[in-house]
Design a protein that fits this description.
Layout: E1 7-8, E2 23-25, E3 30-31, E4 48-50, E5 57-58, E6 72-74, E7 79-82, E8 96-98, E9 103-104
Parallel strand pairs: 1-3, 2-4, 4-6, 5-7, 6-8, 7-9
Amino acid sequence: MSRNRFSGTIPTSLGKFQDKLIQVGFSENLLSGTIPSFLVKKGSPLESLVLSENNISGSIPSVLGLARDLRALFLSSNALTGEIPLQLGNNLKLEYLEFGGNFLSGTIPKTLKNLSNLCNYPY
């Protein structure tokens, strides 16, 4: 659902589907608010969360570390603040991880060294 000029926050009604959500993609819209923690619970099948290029603020929820099958997490070009949660190191299937263009602080968590499937880009 990219480039649709959606605005507002991510609907809480998506929380009803957290046991079934595999991909959530709302990049290049006008979404605001925070990343809802109701998208994920322990054992959630979420594989892809793409929220790049919106107006999302707040911190990255540590609950994302519970998504057992998360392979792609794209959160670039928002207004995210705070530190990268060390729980993301639990997502051992993670291949793509993007945070650029935010206002994150702190250091890169050492737990991310566990992510041996991350793809390398030749930047």
